[in-house]
Amino acid sequence: MSKTNDLYQAKQTFDVNGKSYVYYDLQSLNNVADVSKLPYSIKVLLESLLRQQDGKVIKPEHVESLAKWGKKDGGQEDVPFKPSRVILQDFTGVPAVVDLASLRKAIADFGGDPESIDPAIPADLVVDHSVQVDKFGTSDSLMKNMNLEFERNEERYKLLSWATKAFENYSAVPPATGIVHQVNLEYLANVVHVNENAEGERVTFPDTLVGTDSHTTMINGIGVLGWGVGGIEAEAGMLQQPSYFPAPEVVGVRLEGSLPDGATATDLALKVTQLLRSKNVVGKFVEFFGPGLSGMSLADRATISNMAPEYGATCGFFPVDEEALNYMRLTGRSEEQIAVVEAYTKANGMYFTPDAEERHYTQVVKLDMSTIEPSLAGPKRPQDMIELDNMKSAFEKAVTAPAGNHGFGLESSELDRSVEVAHPNGKKSDLATGAVTIAAITSCTNTSNPSVMIGAGLVAKKAVEKGLDVPEYVKTSLAPGSKVVTRYLEDSGLMPFLDKLGFNLVGYGCTTCIGNSGPLPDEIEQAIADNDLLVSSVLSGNRNFEGRIHPLVRANYLASPPLVVAYALAGNVNFDLRKDSFGKDSDGNDVYFSDLWPTSAEIEQFIRENVSPKLFKDEYENVFDNNERWNALQSKDNANLYNWDSESTYIQNPPFFENMSEEPQDIKPLTDLRAIGKFGDSVTTDHISPAGSIAKNSPAGEYLMEKGLKPSEFNSYGSRRGNHEVMMRGTFANIRIKNQLAPGTEGGYTTYWPTGDVMAIYDAAMKYKADDTGLVVMAGEDYGMGSSRDWAAKGTNLLGIKMVIAQSFERIHRSNLALMGVLPLQFKKGEGADALGLTGKETFSINITDDVTPRDTISVTATDEAGKTTTFEAIVRFDSEIEIDYYRHGGILPMVLRSKLKEAAKK
What we know:
The chain is α/β, with parallel strands linked by helices. Among the domains are: 375-611, 2-Layer Sandwich (Aconitase, domain 3); 670-889, Aconitase, domain 4 (Alpha-Beta Barrel). The chain has a seven-stranded mixed beta barrel with strand order 26-29-30-31-34-33-32. Helix 29 (881-889) packs across helix 30.
């Protein structure tokens, strides 16, 4: 360990069971600032900087600036964050593994050692995004859906499986096991790491992570700081490159009281989402504290943390306390690990107690949990909470409210419409406005919480015992986030009642929550489409944007699992769950909500009797090889190089290292660039790199047909992220994008200036590339907003775009452009392409040189067809020295390759 690393003499020790452990004591910074009152989440960040300070990437000024967080002279420096591990799901994990495999091939081509390319920190992938609810309502639904999943995804899975043997620091949890965030919470998270250093010391430090999914935030429920990032940023983390962000504001949420009987963690999470949306916590940390924590289960906390993206925060953090230790014990973590977590967090001021002095927060919001009522959220946004008592009237109002986030703009007569549907089994149903066509117990948000899952089972039990059933038209499904859930539902005797109502196990994965709800029965889809009927879904997920759950289902409501079962029984959201009768029991008596809804005491008794550490230990003991279909995919050899198949339409070796020199070139001015795109404000990453269907007449569709595929076999852009040939053809191919350089068109078109022909952006880019002409994109405000889609930057690079100049950038996309070696420039305030009179017909020259500095100002010259020049200044949006290095190397991947080659040369 270098002297630089312990600049502040921070190394201290604590003992647990006769073993000595090293930690970096935050109190060593008290001569810089009083750190004792810092928010717990900021302390975790600060420890990461203190421990990894090297004077180069993480500098003393970074440490000291964050130590002064909340003070006038504090928080001025961006935080260079290096997480301790990375988690991935399979959709975003495939391109990351492709890049690592490509790096290995490239280093081998240069005569280097392929095995030198390995994630520098643990990278755990869980296959959870591909399973779809094709089959439901039968005992063999799980097996049938899994078989279909493997048929559709075998090629992708072979790559992910190969990586488990090829990379030392990478693991993959196979399909039909669980959901990444629940597996992370129940098994992967250490809470505090213990790593042995070169001197043989046991070094302890907080578990931190980034993940390639926005709901990575769930892990903050157990005191592990983490959030979602794009694929490139995750790769950077794996390769020990920092991600930079401004020192965050921290909003403290003081929780008081406790949940009343009948209310659930889901109801609380929906209330928190509604409350914090109104407080504008976007881009901020949220930290929970207060007397209410002492009575709150860890699973309840995880539900709230999971929904941080819905309330807009970077994370929703709960500090480690006694309940976190109890949960570690419940989920089968070792007593030694639990003791280390307790000793470390107490020694370093990160352990919460109810009587702890309140930390300094940017703002404090109070919430009395005793006021929480059973609730839903919808019909189109997770922040639009509706108390159960108001649900029927809220739906009626939504039907006639103006079309938008809160309404559908229909006539009041719509409420009286219904259609008779004949089912294949000979039964008939009345499908009415508001009919619940999908009732899904889904998502790690809720299936990680035994109280709501047991609650759902008890509602089912009471309903079956009363003789109730679910209407024929309701598509019911149960897709838990881990196998532990089905074990305790089976052991408690509740599973048969869920099965009886059609909530059979359909898979272990994200399913309906991410839109993999599968088709509705043919007769239902036809009835909805033919009659333009407004129908609904009720799901225990975290997002309900219009079109997300199913294209034909326009009203979508988030609810707790027991409410999902209740609405499945009701069959319609235009139903007063509290007052209306669900039907008659065997004695002819009406059955009401109060007859079905379990008490908190009932639920707690079932949990005490059926949820134990043994369940977790048993289910996670062989978690990496518990799927025989997956095991059969594994290659028989230990090949450290991936065997690329040139005929594959899913996996191809990307050309990021083509014609790469062993040494980077100095940064030189860019000359004679041509504009391929000129866009307005709010161009999203989905505009730049769509994830949905591939059109037959698009460049990507034409490529796939040339490969012998039928349009029905195209799948989506999202599923083909491992094939750059598809993805670069899909760049700027969104059917709704409007390029001002091709007036009168909509979609991915541009004007190819040498001939004046209008053509696909991809086709024009390839013509320019053949002439060695670099390209420019111009845009307005908020360029790259939306999801952190890595291919929006990768595709930009591969089209030959050297510079993107915009009036402002979304943070992650700007960073991704730098990571991919594309120059992000920002117009000066008040300026823009139109204000400067730029039409896009000009040629552009950018006076950037090797001595460029972060946020430097450089000159840009645009020369029009008549030779007239316009010169203006723009801001270089490299926000750190390391981003300039990425650019100098042509991106992070070439930089890593050169670094590995240099290391090998020194040996």
